[in-house]
């Protein structure tokens, strides 16, 4: 299968600590890199990850709080120093241009590459990025400022043709893609060989959803049905439910409920409050409802 990996660069909440940086991730799909949020310290974490700066295609910001954006201008400046020439697209909620365009105009005035800002509607799901292999769709979230998550989803691939059938039925190379697309094969004596004998099913479609920062939002589940892996904020334990509601964040139990109701394959908890010396309380709380739950860790890479 083609590469589909998520690397956690930072998974803490508002305050970076010696244990955790604030929010940032990289999604690696077929060696194309996409960044999710860009907190303070992100470019140093990116260097430690050994991921290639030059393969970054786009940056997606969930919202414009500092613990998700304070690393952006520094990263853009570093790209210029490294001689990047490929355009870089940055997606984010309203006020993206008002806040960042003046900084880009000042700090990146001599940049050898073009920085293109896209403001997106955070109220309605929409596909904002698409190429031959994937789509990126917004996920409306509920926070103190306009905020959205992102769903990365592979496009369906063709079926796999059996090599032994190619040799046995003397199928020419020119017809292989047609058979992968579903065509039957007719032999020289007129026998029809059905496609399901010649091929095996394509690899299952994989998807990844990134949901932070948000209060509990059950309506998300209709957009996340069958998601392969869900990253959902779990800023607080359930004992701090009132604080979660006040600050428009979620508890570990609520994150697990979203994963369960979505039929997710795996849940990654993140965006941890610095009040917890150990996040095991959050892990155990979520696993009681959704067993296939893990904790995010700075530097962790998950392969789908």
Write the layout of secondary structure elements.
Layout: E1 4-10, E2 24-29, E3 32-38, H1 42-49, E4 56-60, H2 66-69, H3 72-81, E5 88-92, H4 96-107, E6 115-119, E7 127-130, E8 134-140, E9 148-154, E10 160-161, H5 163-168, H6 176-180, E11 185-186, E12 192-193, H7 195-198, E13 199-200, E14 207-211, E15 229-233, H8 241-247, H9 252-262, E16 266-270, H10 280-287, E17 293-295, E18 301-303
Parallel strand pairs: 3-4, 4-5, 5-6, 14-15, 15-16, 16-17
Antiparallel strand pairs: 1-2, 1-18, 2-3, 7-8, 8-9, 9-14, 10-13, 11-12
Helix pairs in contact: 9-10
Globally, the shape reads globular
Q: How many domains, as an integer?
A: 2
For the residues shown, what is the average pLDDT? 94
Contiguous low-pLDDT stretches (5 residues minimum) are none
* Percent of sequence in beta strands: 25-35%
Largest sheet geometry: 7 strands, mixed
Radius of gyration: 22 Å
Instruction: Count helical runs.
Output: 10
Tally the beta strands. 18
**Helix/strand-derived class?**
alpha/beta
Order the strands across the largest sheet as they lie in space: 6-5-4-3-2-1-18
SSE topology string: EEEHEHHEHEEEEEHHEEHEEEHHEHEE
Task: Assign the CATH architecture of the largest domain.
Answer: 4-Layer Sandwich
CATH third-tier fold name of the largest domain:
Metallo-beta-lactamase, Chain A
Terminal-residue CA separation: 10 Å
CATH homologous superfamily caption of the largest domain: Ribonuclease Z/Hydroxyacylglutathione hydrolase-like
Proportion in helices: 10-25%
In the CATH scheme, the class of the largest domain would be Alpha Beta
């Amino acid at each position: 299968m083609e590469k589909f990996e998520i690397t956690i660069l930072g998974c803490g909440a508002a305050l970076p600590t010696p244990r955790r940086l604030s929010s940032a991730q990289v999604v690696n799909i077929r060696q194309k890199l996409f960044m999710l949020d860009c907190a303070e310290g992100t470019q140093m974490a990116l260097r430690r990850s050994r991921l290639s700066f030059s393969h970054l295609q786009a940056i997606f910001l969930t919202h414009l709080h500092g613990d998700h954006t304070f690393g952006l201008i520094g990263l853009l400046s570093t790209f210029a120093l490294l001689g990047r020439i490929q355009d870089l697209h940055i997606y984010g909620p309203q006020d993206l241009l008002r806040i960042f365009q003046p900084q880009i105009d000042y700090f990146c005035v001599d940049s050898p590459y073009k920085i293109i800002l896209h403001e997106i509607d955070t109220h309605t799901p929409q596909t904002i990025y698409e190429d031959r292999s994937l789509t990126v769709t917004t996920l409306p979230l509920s926070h103190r400022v306009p905020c959205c998550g992102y769903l990365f989803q592979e496009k369906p691939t063709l079926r796999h043709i059996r090599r032994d059938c190619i040799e046995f039925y003397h199928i020419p190379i020119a017809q292989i893609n047609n058979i992968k697309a579903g065509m039957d094969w007719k032999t020289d004596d007129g026998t029809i060989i059905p496609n399901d004998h010649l091929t095996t099913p394509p690899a299952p479609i994989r998807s990844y959803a990134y949901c932070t920062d948000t209060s509990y939002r059950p309506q998300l589940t209709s957009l996340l049905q069958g998601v392969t892996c869900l990253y959902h904020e779990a800023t607080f334990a359930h004992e701090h439910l009132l604080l979660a509601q006040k600050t428009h964040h979620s508890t570990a139990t609520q994150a697990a409920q979203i994963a369960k109701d979505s039929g997710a394959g795996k849940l990654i908890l993140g965006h941890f409050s610095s009040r917890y010396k150990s996040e095991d309380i959050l892990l155990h709380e979520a696993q009681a409802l959704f067993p296939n739950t893990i904790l995010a860790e700075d530097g962790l890479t998950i392969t789908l």
